[in-house]
Design a protein that fits this description.
heterodimer; A: alpha+beta; Jelly Rolls; Phage tail protein beta-alpha-beta fold; 18 strands; 29% strand; B: mainly alpha; FecR (chain A); Ferric-dicitrate binding protein FerR (Iron transport regulator) (chain A); FecR_C (chain A); Ferrdict_sens_TM (chain A)
């Protein structure tokens, strides 16, 4: 059994499983065994010592240099997105995710209720009470209320929400203070950026349409983009974060955790004309083509494994279904799942024959 | 040095416990898995591609994927092997999506360098570095990309031939040959350099015990 070691060269030792294992992670059993070999074949003693060192040298020399900070940076990204998947929208055939989402809703509600009972002065009140010449709109009508701003932009104020703005918007920027939820359709004016201050969130645009929701009683505030691009800054006691959003993207701000998290809006709208989308017809097309076309039509990155979908072909056309309805139908056909992760949609590997 | 990862049974048991805690949604277990393997995974990532952003994205995707999919992942007794194999597949998939990045990267490059003798003359020619450890370092750098990957998996990460074969999608014998050729190329260096190779002073000398 051990005779082979009598004639081993250094190169033989360093290709021997047991030897490599011992050299890398010496333990009592290994020490005993190799000492025994060295005692049996004294001429191999130096070879063994050298071989052991060579294994360690090879380990060290084959290690590429990498940035030590990298691990922490990547983890920050991962932990920032870990909650997106469970709370994000449709996830099919993953029962536990639904329970997780339900649990999150329950927790957030509990938080909201707790928050209600010790309501401090809101950021909205702090900001607006100092300012003069402000015009305030309060919507207690039970339905949406449309407000025309001095610059020609239009705001649809949700029930239970209020907003303030200067009667003349003739400064270098256009500013609106919001408590609650509103959809903004902002008139384009690159020389006068448009700001919405809502709790910790500051949203800055040039001309675009988007919704801001920030009820101070709720733990989650959000900005959802319909068209154009929007930059959002969340200023909280411990840190300030910012993101730039594209159409169909939304960002949620978790007040308690001071965390920003990217996602997709519930009902993405095509970034191309609805009429063009309705012309989409796929005739025995590779599903990769379908996914790519849909991704372009909605400006959303759809991620899938090219090889895994290679065998899948479909015939399909788009009428008035929503993006998630379309994806549901496609995934049903190719026996895959789709899932919203952050601002992307991921398709699991399908089963096509 | 990296922690022992192949002290067989104990490690496999620890892995299985950690993995099942993670599968039950234990965030601490998930964080521990990351902490435990991230340095090695990054080292390996850098061997497969030099595109830092791509490694970063691939590692991030991999961990988010297993977090989201934790309920439906198979049980494993070697988390490390699972992570390495998945990371490699992910990097290569991502490289395929960006073919313009490929030329600089090695994962898919055909083994040509191995058959050439340019290597030996370069190493044993007249102008090489004089220090033997540096010589070895240079020789390792001159191995073909696949040889280097296999050498790293074998000696740095400590995987078995079978595991390396599965990761690199080769059969066992091809991996054996690949490594054998690499060692043969390096062998003269170990043997002529002799005791000078012993450079880590902290290591206990085996013959001294």
């Amino acid at each position: 059994m051990t005779e082979k070691y009598q004639t081993y060269t250094l190169a033989d030792f360093i290709q021997d499983d047991a030897f490599i294992q011992w050299a890398k992670s010496p333990d009592a059993a290994g020490d005993a065994f190799w000492e025994q070999i060295a005692a049996l074949y004294p001429h191999q003693k130096d070879v063994i010592t050298q071989a052991r060192q060579t294994v360690l040298n090879l380990a060290e020399l084959s290690r590429p240099a990498f940035d030590e900070d990298e691990a922490g940076l990547i983890w920050a990204q991962i932990s920032g997105q870990m909650d997106d998947a469970p709370v994000s929208e449709p996830v099919f055939r993953l029962g536990w995710l639904r329970y997780a989402a339900a649990a999150v809703v329950v927790l957030l509600t509990a938080w909201g209720i707790r928050h209600w009972y010790r309501e401090p002065q809101t950021l909205y009140a702090q900001r607006t009470e100092q300012l003069e010449n402000l015009h305030e709109e309060i919507n207690e009508t039970g339905k949406e209320k449309t407000v025309q701003l001095p610059d020609g932009s239009r705001v649809t104020l949700a029930q239970g929400s209020r907003m303030s703005f200067f009667e003349s918007m003739d400064g270098s920027k256009r500013e609106v203070y919001l408590a609650g939820e509103a959809f903004f359709d902002v008139k384009r004016n690159p020389s006068k950026p448009f700001f919405v201050y809502a709790g910790e969130l500051t949203t800055r645009v040039l001309g675009t349409s988007f919704t801001v929701r920030s009820f101070e009683k709720e733990n989650v505030a959000s900005v959802q983009v319909r068209t154009g691009s929007v930059s959002v800054e969340a200023r909280a006691p411990r840190k300030t974060q910012s993101v730039v959003l594209a159409p169909n993207q939304q960002v949620s701000f978790f007040r308690k955790e001071e965390r920003l998290s990217m996602g997709l809006v519930k009902a993405p709208q095509p970034v191309i004309a609805q009429a063009d989308l309705a012309r989409f017809t796929f005739n025995n097309a590779p599903v990769s083509t379908i996914f790519d076309s849909l991704g372009k039509a909605y400006g959303i990155e759809i991620v899938y494994d090219k090889e895994a979908v290679a065998a899948c072909r479909l015939t399909s056309s788009v009428q008035e279904e929503s993006l998630f309805e379309i994806l549901g139908v496609i995934c049903e056909a190719i026996e895959a799942d789709y899932q919203v992760t952050g601002a992307k949609i991921r398709i699991s590997d399908p089963h096509c024959n | 040095m990296f922690p022992n990862h192949r002290s067989p049974l104990k490690e496999a048991n620890a892995d299985m416990l950690l993995w099942s805690a993670f599968q039950n949604g234990d965030r601490d277990a998930f964080a521990s898995i990351y902490q435990k393997y991230i340095d090695e995974l990054l080292s390996y990532g850098y061997r497969v591609t030099s595109d830092r952003q791509l490694i970063r994205d691939s590692v991030q995707d991999l961990f988010l994927h297993i977090w989201v999919r934790r309920g439906s992942l198979a049980t494993t007794d070697s988390i490390k092997f699972y992570l390495f194999r998945s990371l490699r597949n992910r990097i290569i998939r991502n490289l395929e999506k960006h073919p313009e990045r490929l030329h600089a990267d090695i994962g898919l490059v055909v083994e040509v360098a191995e058959e050439s003798n340019a290597f030996e003359t370069a190493i044993f020619g007249h102008d090489g570095p004089s220090d033997s450890y540096e010589k070895l370092a240079e020789a390792v750098n001159r191995l073909s990309p696949r040889q280097r990957e296999a050498v790293q998996l074998r000696y740095l990460h400590g995987f078995s031939l079978e595991e390396i074969a599965e990761m690199m999608q080769m059969n066992n014998q091809s991996v054996r040959n690949l490594l054998h050729r690499a060692i043969t190329q390096l062998r003269l260096l170990f043997e002529t350099a002799g005791g000078l190779l012993v450079f880590l002073s902290t290591l206990q000398n085996f013959s001294g015990r």
